Protein backbone atom coordinates (compact mmCIF):
# COMPACT_ATOMS: atom_id res chain seq x y z
CA UNK A 1 0.00 0.00 0.00
CA UNK A 2 1.11 3.49 -0.79
CA UNK A 3 -0.32 6.66 0.75
CA UNK A 4 -2.16 9.04 -1.54
CA UNK A 5 0.59 11.60 -1.01
CA UNK A 6 3.36 9.20 -2.07
CA UNK A 7 1.28 8.01 -5.02
CA UNK A 8 1.04 11.60 -6.23
CA UNK A 9 4.78 12.00 -5.78
CA UNK A 10 5.39 8.81 -7.77
CA UNK A 11 2.95 9.38 -10.63
CA UNK A 12 3.02 13.11 -11.48
CA UNK A 13 5.72 13.99 -13.99
CA UNK A 14 4.91 17.42 -15.46
CA UNK A 15 7.40 20.32 -15.40
CA UNK A 16 8.33 21.29 -11.86
CA UNK A 17 7.10 18.08 -10.18
CA UNK A 18 9.75 16.20 -8.15
CA UNK A 19 9.40 12.96 -10.17
CA UNK A 20 9.26 14.95 -13.39
CA UNK A 21 12.61 16.46 -12.42
CA UNK A 22 14.07 13.03 -11.59
CA UNK A 23 13.07 11.67 -15.02
CA UNK A 24 14.49 14.81 -16.66
CA UNK A 25 17.98 13.76 -15.55
CA UNK A 26 18.09 10.83 -18.01
CA UNK A 27 17.92 10.17 -21.77
CA UNK A 28 14.42 9.13 -22.82
CA UNK A 29 13.04 7.80 -26.13
CA UNK A 30 10.60 10.22 -27.75
CA UNK A 31 9.94 9.15 -31.38
CA UNK A 32 10.83 6.38 -33.79
CA UNK A 33 13.39 7.44 -36.39
CA UNK A 34 10.97 6.50 -39.17
CA UNK A 35 8.57 9.22 -38.04
CA UNK A 36 11.12 11.68 -39.40
CA UNK A 37 12.25 9.67 -42.42
CA UNK A 38 14.39 12.25 -44.28
CA UNK A 39 15.86 15.78 -44.14
CA UNK A 40 13.24 18.56 -44.38
CA UNK A 41 10.34 16.09 -44.02
CA UNK A 42 7.12 17.26 -42.34
CA UNK A 43 7.42 18.03 -38.61
CA UNK A 44 5.55 15.80 -36.14
CA UNK A 45 3.94 16.37 -32.77
CA UNK A 46 5.55 14.77 -29.75
CA UNK A 47 4.49 14.78 -26.13
CA UNK A 48 6.79 13.86 -23.29
CA UNK A 49 6.56 14.37 -19.51
CA UNK A 50 3.48 16.53 -20.02
CA UNK A 51 5.23 18.90 -22.46
CA UNK A 52 3.77 19.57 -25.91
CA UNK A 53 6.67 19.43 -28.37
CA UNK A 54 7.29 19.39 -32.11
CA UNK A 55 10.10 17.44 -33.78
CA UNK A 56 11.66 18.08 -37.17
CA UNK A 57 14.62 16.75 -39.14
CA UNK A 58 16.57 19.63 -40.63
CA UNK A 59 18.38 19.90 -43.95
CA UNK A 60 21.50 18.26 -42.45
CA UNK A 61 19.49 15.32 -41.12
CA UNK A 62 19.79 16.45 -37.49
CA UNK A 63 16.69 16.25 -35.33
CA UNK A 64 15.28 19.26 -33.50
CA UNK A 65 12.81 18.89 -30.63
CA UNK A 66 11.24 22.20 -29.68
CA UNK A 67 8.32 23.63 -27.74
CA UNK A 68 5.10 23.31 -29.71
CA UNK A 69 4.20 26.94 -29.05
CA UNK A 70 5.92 29.68 -31.01
CA UNK A 71 7.36 32.27 -28.60
CA UNK A 72 5.87 35.12 -30.67
CA UNK A 73 2.11 34.66 -30.28
CA UNK A 74 1.99 30.96 -29.33
CA UNK A 75 0.90 29.48 -32.64
CA UNK A 76 1.58 25.75 -32.99
CA UNK A 77 4.82 25.00 -34.79
CA UNK A 78 3.30 21.72 -35.96
CA UNK A 79 1.89 23.76 -38.85
CA UNK A 80 5.38 25.07 -39.55
CA UNK A 81 7.40 24.92 -42.76
CA UNK A 82 10.51 22.76 -42.40
CA UNK A 83 12.94 24.43 -44.77
CA UNK A 84 16.64 25.34 -45.11
CA UNK A 85 17.84 24.18 -41.70
CA UNK A 86 15.01 25.46 -39.60
CA UNK A 87 11.33 25.30 -38.75
CA UNK A 88 9.39 28.40 -39.79
CA UNK A 89 6.18 29.37 -38.02
CA UNK A 90 3.40 29.89 -40.56
CA UNK A 91 1.75 32.69 -38.56
CA UNK A 92 4.36 35.48 -39.03
CA UNK A 93 7.34 33.61 -40.41
CA UNK A 94 9.70 33.42 -37.43
CA UNK A 95 12.19 30.61 -37.97
CA UNK A 96 14.05 28.45 -35.41
CA UNK A 97 16.95 26.04 -35.74
CA UNK A 98 17.42 22.76 -33.83
CA UNK A 99 19.19 24.62 -31.01
CA UNK A 100 16.13 26.82 -30.48
CA UNK A 101 17.81 29.98 -31.84
CA UNK A 102 15.59 32.34 -33.83
CA UNK A 103 17.42 32.59 -37.16
CA UNK A 104 14.93 34.72 -39.09
CA UNK A 105 12.26 37.24 -38.06
CA UNK A 106 10.86 38.71 -41.27
CA UNK A 107 7.97 40.48 -39.50
CA UNK A 108 10.40 42.91 -37.78
CA UNK A 109 12.51 45.67 -39.39
CA UNK A 110 15.74 44.41 -40.94
CA UNK A 111 17.84 46.54 -38.57
CA UNK A 112 16.14 45.12 -35.45
CA UNK A 113 18.17 42.78 -33.24
CA UNK A 114 15.01 41.46 -31.57
CA UNK A 115 15.56 38.02 -33.13
CA UNK A 116 18.85 37.61 -31.24
CA UNK A 117 16.95 37.95 -27.97
CA UNK A 118 14.30 35.33 -28.69
CA UNK A 119 14.81 31.60 -28.14
CA UNK A 120 12.47 28.66 -28.12
CA UNK A 121 12.90 25.76 -25.70
CA UNK A 122 14.87 23.06 -27.57
CA UNK A 123 16.09 19.72 -26.24
CA UNK A 124 19.16 17.85 -27.50
CA UNK A 125 18.52 14.62 -29.43
CA UNK A 126 20.35 11.45 -30.45
CA UNK A 127 19.10 9.25 -33.32
CA UNK A 128 20.21 5.70 -32.48
CA UNK A 129 18.73 2.22 -32.78
CA UNK A 130 15.73 3.39 -34.85
CA UNK A 131 14.83 5.67 -31.97
CA UNK A 132 15.11 9.39 -31.32
CA UNK A 133 16.21 10.04 -27.73
CA UNK A 134 16.19 13.27 -25.81
CA UNK A 135 17.37 14.79 -22.57
CA UNK A 136 15.07 17.39 -21.01
CA UNK A 137 17.02 18.39 -17.91
CA UNK A 138 19.44 21.23 -17.11
CA UNK A 139 22.25 21.53 -19.64
CA UNK A 140 24.99 21.41 -17.01
CA UNK A 141 23.71 18.07 -15.70
CA UNK A 142 23.37 16.34 -19.10
CA UNK A 143 24.77 12.78 -18.81
CA UNK A 144 26.61 10.96 -21.60
CA UNK A 145 24.28 9.11 -23.98
CA UNK A 146 23.02 5.76 -22.69
CA UNK A 147 25.40 2.85 -23.00
CA UNK A 148 23.07 -0.15 -23.08
CA UNK A 149 23.73 -3.74 -24.13
CA UNK A 150 21.56 -3.30 -27.26
CA UNK A 151 23.98 -0.67 -28.53
CA UNK A 152 26.70 -3.31 -28.79
CA UNK A 153 24.96 -3.97 -32.12
CA UNK A 154 24.59 -1.68 -35.15
CA UNK A 155 21.25 -0.02 -35.91
CA UNK A 156 20.58 -2.60 -38.64
CA UNK A 157 20.36 -5.32 -35.93
CA UNK A 158 18.04 -3.30 -33.70
CA UNK A 159 14.25 -3.25 -33.85
CA UNK A 160 12.29 -0.63 -31.99
CA UNK A 161 8.61 -0.90 -31.24
CA UNK A 162 6.31 1.54 -29.50
CA UNK A 163 2.71 1.33 -28.37
CA UNK A 164 0.78 4.03 -26.61
CA UNK A 165 -0.75 2.93 -23.32
CA UNK A 166 -3.68 4.75 -21.71
CA UNK A 167 -2.49 4.52 -18.13
CA UNK A 168 -0.04 6.22 -15.80
CA UNK A 169 3.50 4.99 -16.48
CA UNK A 170 4.00 3.58 -12.97
CA UNK A 171 1.45 0.81 -13.26
CA UNK A 172 2.79 -0.10 -16.69
CA UNK A 173 6.33 -0.38 -15.26
CA UNK A 174 4.97 -2.48 -12.43
CA UNK A 175 3.48 -4.89 -14.96
CA UNK A 176 6.99 -5.58 -16.23
CA UNK A 177 8.49 -6.32 -12.84
CA UNK A 178 5.66 -8.54 -11.68
CA UNK A 179 7.23 -11.94 -12.26
CA UNK A 180 4.35 -14.01 -10.93
CA UNK A 181 1.77 -12.81 -13.48
CA UNK A 182 3.45 -14.69 -16.31
CA UNK A 183 2.23 -17.94 -14.74
CA UNK A 184 -1.33 -16.68 -15.24
CA UNK A 185 -2.02 -13.71 -17.51
CA UNK A 186 0.07 -14.89 -20.45
CA UNK A 187 -0.75 -18.59 -20.37
CA UNK A 188 -2.27 -20.60 -23.14
CA UNK A 189 -4.57 -23.16 -21.58
CA UNK A 190 -2.73 -25.95 -23.41
CA UNK A 191 0.49 -24.96 -21.58
CA UNK A 192 -1.01 -25.25 -18.11
CA UNK A 193 -0.38 -28.96 -18.03
CA UNK A 194 2.78 -29.90 -19.88
CA UNK A 195 3.57 -32.86 -17.65
CA UNK A 196 4.12 -35.10 -20.70
CA UNK A 197 6.72 -32.77 -22.22
CA UNK A 198 10.41 -33.43 -21.54
CA UNK A 199 13.25 -32.52 -23.92
CA UNK A 200 15.95 -33.21 -21.35
CA UNK A 201 16.70 -29.55 -20.51
CA UNK A 202 15.35 -29.58 -16.94
CA UNK A 203 18.97 -29.84 -15.82
CA UNK A 204 21.54 -27.34 -14.55
CA UNK A 205 22.16 -24.82 -17.36
CA UNK A 206 19.95 -23.05 -19.87
CA UNK A 207 16.52 -24.57 -20.43
CA UNK A 208 14.87 -24.65 -23.84
CA UNK A 209 12.16 -22.11 -24.52
CA UNK A 210 9.49 -24.77 -24.17
CA UNK A 211 10.97 -26.13 -20.93
CA UNK A 212 11.00 -22.59 -19.56
CA UNK A 213 7.28 -22.38 -20.33
CA UNK A 214 6.68 -25.72 -18.64
CA UNK A 215 8.55 -24.65 -15.49
CA UNK A 216 6.60 -21.39 -15.24
CA UNK A 217 3.36 -23.31 -15.49
CA UNK A 218 4.39 -26.02 -13.04
CA UNK A 219 5.44 -23.67 -10.22
CA UNK A 220 3.14 -20.67 -10.12
CA UNK A 221 4.43 -19.41 -6.81
CA UNK A 222 7.69 -17.68 -7.75
CA UNK A 223 9.82 -16.59 -4.80
CA UNK A 224 10.83 -12.99 -5.50
CA UNK A 225 14.07 -11.58 -4.08
CA UNK A 226 15.37 -8.08 -4.82
CA UNK A 227 19.00 -7.00 -4.79
CA UNK A 228 20.21 -3.40 -4.88
CA UNK A 229 22.99 -2.63 -7.34
CA UNK A 230 24.98 0.46 -8.18
CA UNK A 231 22.93 1.03 -11.37
CA UNK A 232 19.52 0.45 -9.74
CA UNK A 233 18.37 -3.00 -8.76
CA UNK A 234 17.64 -6.46 -10.04
CA UNK A 235 15.38 -9.19 -8.88
CA UNK A 236 14.98 -12.89 -9.28
CA UNK A 237 11.86 -15.03 -9.56
CA UNK A 238 12.85 -18.50 -8.33
CA UNK A 239 10.73 -21.50 -9.31
CA UNK A 240 11.24 -25.16 -8.47
CA UNK A 241 11.51 -27.25 -11.63
CA UNK A 242 9.77 -30.62 -12.01
CA UNK A 243 13.21 -32.25 -11.48
CA UNK A 244 13.69 -30.30 -8.23
CA UNK A 245 16.20 -27.66 -9.38
CA UNK A 246 15.94 -23.91 -8.88
CA UNK A 247 14.98 -22.00 -12.01
CA UNK A 248 16.05 -18.34 -12.03
CA UNK A 249 14.53 -15.51 -14.03
CA UNK A 250 16.56 -12.39 -13.31
CA UNK A 251 15.23 -9.01 -14.43
CA UNK A 252 17.41 -5.92 -14.18
CA UNK A 253 16.25 -2.34 -13.71
CA UNK A 254 18.60 0.50 -14.53
CA UNK A 255 17.33 3.52 -12.62
CA UNK A 256 14.86 4.97 -13.31
CA UNK A 257 13.02 3.25 -16.19
CA UNK A 258 15.27 0.98 -18.23
CA UNK A 259 14.22 -2.61 -17.72
CA UNK A 260 15.74 -5.77 -19.07
CA UNK A 261 13.22 -8.51 -18.60
CA UNK A 262 14.58 -12.00 -18.17
CA UNK A 263 15.14 -13.60 -21.57
CA UNK A 264 16.88 -16.71 -22.80
CA UNK A 265 20.21 -15.96 -24.53
CA UNK A 266 18.74 -17.13 -27.86
CA UNK A 267 16.23 -14.27 -27.71
CA UNK A 268 18.98 -11.58 -27.86
CA UNK A 269 19.20 -8.48 -25.69
CA UNK A 270 16.31 -6.08 -25.22
CA UNK A 271 15.23 -3.15 -23.09
CA UNK A 272 11.73 -2.04 -22.15
CA UNK A 273 10.99 1.56 -21.24
CA UNK A 274 7.68 2.89 -20.02
CA UNK A 275 7.92 6.60 -20.71
CA UNK A 276 5.27 9.09 -19.60
CA UNK A 277 3.62 11.23 -22.30
CA UNK A 278 1.80 12.91 -19.45
CA UNK A 279 0.31 11.76 -16.14
CA UNK A 280 -2.38 9.64 -17.77
CA UNK A 281 -0.74 8.08 -20.81
CA UNK A 282 2.64 6.59 -21.58
CA UNK A 283 4.66 4.90 -24.31
CA UNK A 284 5.58 1.23 -23.98
CA UNK A 285 8.92 1.13 -25.77
CA UNK A 286 10.62 -2.13 -26.64
CA UNK A 287 14.07 -1.92 -28.24
CA UNK A 288 15.80 -5.21 -28.96
CA UNK A 289 18.71 -6.49 -31.02
CA UNK A 290 19.47 -9.63 -33.00
CA UNK A 291 22.96 -10.81 -32.32
CA UNK A 292 23.54 -12.74 -35.57
CA UNK A 293 22.60 -10.49 -38.51
CA UNK A 294 20.65 -7.37 -39.55
CA UNK A 295 16.86 -7.54 -39.50
CA UNK A 296 15.18 -7.73 -42.88
CA UNK A 297 12.47 -5.25 -43.87
CA UNK A 298 9.94 -8.10 -43.65
CA UNK A 299 11.00 -8.83 -40.07
CA UNK A 300 10.55 -5.17 -39.15
CA UNK A 301 7.07 -5.09 -40.67
CA UNK A 302 6.24 -8.40 -39.08
CA UNK A 303 7.21 -7.09 -35.67
CA UNK A 304 4.82 -4.17 -36.03
CA UNK A 305 1.98 -6.29 -37.32
CA UNK A 306 2.37 -9.26 -35.03
CA UNK A 307 3.41 -7.76 -31.73
CA UNK A 308 -0.12 -8.39 -30.54
CA UNK A 309 -1.38 -4.87 -31.05
CA UNK A 310 -0.75 -3.78 -34.62
CA UNK A 311 0.29 -0.13 -34.54
CA UNK A 312 0.32 2.76 -36.96
CA UNK A 313 3.45 4.84 -37.41
CA UNK A 314 2.56 6.91 -34.34
CA UNK A 315 2.39 3.83 -32.09
CA UNK A 316 -1.38 3.81 -31.77
CA UNK A 317 -2.62 0.25 -31.46
CA UNK A 318 -5.70 -1.27 -33.05
CA UNK A 319 -6.76 -2.73 -29.69
CA UNK A 320 -7.61 -0.66 -26.64
CA UNK A 321 -10.09 0.17 -23.93
CA UNK A 322 -12.64 1.19 -26.56
CA UNK A 323 -12.96 -2.34 -27.98
CA UNK A 324 -12.04 -4.33 -24.85
CA UNK A 325 -8.74 -5.28 -26.52
CA UNK A 326 -10.75 -7.55 -28.87
CA UNK A 327 -11.41 -9.96 -26.04
CA UNK A 328 -12.99 -13.24 -27.15
CA UNK A 329 -14.90 -15.10 -24.45
CA UNK A 330 -14.71 -18.22 -26.63
CA UNK A 331 -10.91 -18.01 -26.66
CA UNK A 332 -10.98 -17.42 -22.91
CA UNK A 333 -12.91 -20.67 -22.45
CA UNK A 334 -10.93 -22.75 -24.90
CA UNK A 335 -7.55 -21.23 -25.71
CA UNK A 336 -5.94 -18.79 -23.33
CA UNK A 337 -6.24 -17.51 -19.79
CA UNK A 338 -7.41 -14.06 -20.94
CA UNK A 339 -9.05 -14.58 -24.32
CA UNK A 340 -7.00 -11.57 -25.51
CA UNK A 341 -4.44 -11.98 -28.28
CA UNK A 342 -0.81 -10.88 -27.83
CA UNK A 343 1.31 -10.72 -24.70
CA UNK A 344 1.70 -6.93 -24.78
CA UNK A 345 -2.03 -6.44 -25.26
CA UNK A 346 -2.77 -8.74 -22.32
CA UNK A 347 -0.49 -6.53 -20.21
CA UNK A 348 -2.25 -3.43 -21.52
CA UNK A 349 -5.68 -4.77 -20.63
CA UNK A 350 -4.79 -5.28 -16.98
CA UNK A 351 -2.67 -2.17 -16.45
CA UNK A 352 -5.10 0.13 -18.29
CA UNK A 353 -8.07 -1.57 -16.66
CA UNK A 354 -6.94 -0.18 -13.29
CA UNK A 355 -7.87 3.47 -12.76
CA UNK A 356 -5.87 5.74 -15.05
CA UNK A 357 -3.77 6.56 -11.98
CA UNK A 358 -4.30 3.44 -9.92
CA UNK A 359 -5.35 3.84 -6.27
CA UNK A 360 -2.48 2.16 -4.44
CA UNK A 361 -3.91 2.73 -0.96
CA UNK A 362 -6.38 -0.10 -1.40
CA UNK A 363 -4.06 -2.76 -2.74
CA UNK A 364 -3.06 -5.88 -0.79
CA UNK A 365 0.48 -6.67 -1.81
CA UNK A 366 1.90 -10.13 -1.06
CA UNK A 367 5.32 -11.75 -1.03
CA UNK A 368 5.37 -12.10 -4.82
CA UNK A 369 5.08 -8.30 -5.16
CA UNK A 370 8.55 -7.64 -3.71
CA UNK A 371 9.98 -6.00 -6.81
CA UNK A 372 7.03 -3.62 -7.08
CA UNK A 373 7.37 -2.62 -3.44
CA UNK A 374 11.11 -2.08 -3.87
CA UNK A 375 10.76 0.00 -7.03
CA UNK A 376 8.18 2.27 -5.40
CA UNK A 377 10.49 2.82 -2.46
CA UNK A 378 13.43 3.70 -4.69
CA UNK A 379 11.38 6.05 -6.89
CA UNK A 380 9.57 7.82 -4.06
CA UNK A 381 12.87 8.29 -2.22
CA UNK A 382 14.41 9.83 -5.34
CA UNK A 383 11.45 12.23 -5.68
CA UNK A 384 11.68 13.19 -1.99
CA UNK A 385 15.42 13.77 -2.34
CA UNK A 386 14.81 15.95 -5.39
CA UNK A 387 12.48 18.10 -3.26
CA UNK A 388 15.47 18.71 -1.01
CA UNK A 389 17.72 19.50 -3.96
CA UNK A 390 19.55 16.15 -3.93
CA UNK A 391 20.25 14.85 -7.43
CA UNK A 392 19.44 11.20 -8.37
CA UNK A 393 22.13 8.63 -9.17
CA UNK A 394 24.53 9.26 -12.02
CA UNK A 395 25.38 6.23 -14.12
CA UNK A 396 28.83 5.02 -15.04
CA UNK A 397 28.60 4.18 -18.77
CA UNK A 398 31.08 1.31 -18.31
CA UNK A 399 28.78 -0.32 -15.75
CA UNK A 400 25.60 0.25 -17.80
CA UNK A 401 27.13 -1.49 -20.80
CA UNK A 402 27.46 -4.68 -18.79
CA UNK A 403 23.96 -4.91 -17.34
CA UNK A 404 22.14 -8.03 -18.53
CA UNK A 405 19.02 -9.97 -17.72
CA UNK A 406 19.41 -13.69 -17.16
CA UNK A 407 17.63 -17.04 -17.09
CA UNK A 408 19.18 -20.28 -15.90
CA UNK A 409 18.58 -23.45 -13.93
CA UNK A 410 21.05 -23.47 -11.05
CA UNK A 411 22.11 -26.30 -8.78
CA UNK A 412 20.10 -26.58 -5.62
CA UNK A 413 21.70 -24.65 -2.75
CA UNK A 414 23.62 -22.12 -4.89
CA UNK A 415 23.36 -18.37 -4.25
CA UNK A 416 21.31 -16.78 -7.07
CA UNK A 417 23.22 -13.52 -6.70
CA UNK A 418 26.23 -15.10 -8.36
CA UNK A 419 24.22 -15.58 -11.56
CA UNK A 420 24.08 -13.00 -14.32
CA UNK A 421 25.91 -10.40 -12.20
CA UNK A 422 27.83 -9.09 -15.20
CA UNK A 423 27.91 -5.51 -14.00
CA UNK A 424 28.14 -6.33 -10.33
CA UNK A 425 31.21 -8.49 -10.64
CA UNK A 426 33.28 -5.51 -11.63
CA UNK A 427 31.32 -2.83 -9.89
CA UNK A 428 30.66 -4.20 -6.43
CA UNK A 429 27.00 -5.14 -6.03
CA UNK A 430 25.74 -4.30 -2.57
CA UNK A 431 24.38 -7.46 -0.95
S1 LIG B 1 3.13 33.21 -33.74
FE1 LIG B 1 4.82 32.31 -34.68
S2 LIG B 1 5.66 33.88 -35.88
FE2 LIG B 1 3.98 34.79 -34.90
FE1 LIG C 1 3.29 -9.32 -18.85
What's the short story on this structure?
The chain has 431 residues and is of the alpha+beta class.
Q: Can you describe what's shown?
A:
- The protein has 431 residues and is of the alpha+beta class.
- The chain folds into two domains: 32-134, Rieske Iron-sulfur Protein (3-layer Sandwich), CATH 2.102.10; 149-427, no CATH class.
- It is built from eleven helices and 19 strands.
- The chain has helices at residues 4-11, 18-23, 169-176, 189-192, 209-218, 297-306, 329-334, 343-353, 370-387, 397-400, 422-427, and strands spanning 28-32, 44-48, 51-57, 63-67, 81-82, 87-88, 95-96, 102-104, 122-123, 125-128, 131-134, 158-165, 223-229, 232-240, 246-254, 258-260, 270-276, 282-289, 406-410.
- Strands 12, 13, 14, 15, 16, 17, 18 and 19 form an eight-stranded antiparallel beta sheet that branches. A four-stranded antiparallel beta sheet has the order 2-3-4-9, with no helix packed on it.
- A hairpin with a 6-residue loop joins β6 (87-88) and β7.
- α1 (4-11) packs across α9.
- It is elongated.
- Residues 426-431 have low confidence and may be disordered.
- Bound molecules: FE2/S2 (inorganic) cluster and fe (ii) ion.
- FE2/S2 (inorganic) cluster binds at residues 70, 72-73, 75, 89, 91-94.
Topology at a glance:
Elements: H1 4-11, H2 18-23, E1 28-32, E2 44-48, E3 51-57, E4 63-67, E5 81-82, E6 87-88, E7 95-96, E8 102-104, E9 122-123, E10 125-128, E11 131-134, E12 158-165, H3 169-176, H4 189-192, H5 209-218, E13 223-229, E14 232-240, E15 246-254, E16 258-260, E17 270-276, E18 282-289, H6 297-306, H7 329-334, H8 343-353, H9 370-387, H10 397-400, E19 406-410, H11 422-427
Helix pairs in contact: 1-9
Bound molecules: FE2/S2 (inorganic) cluster and fe (ii) ion.
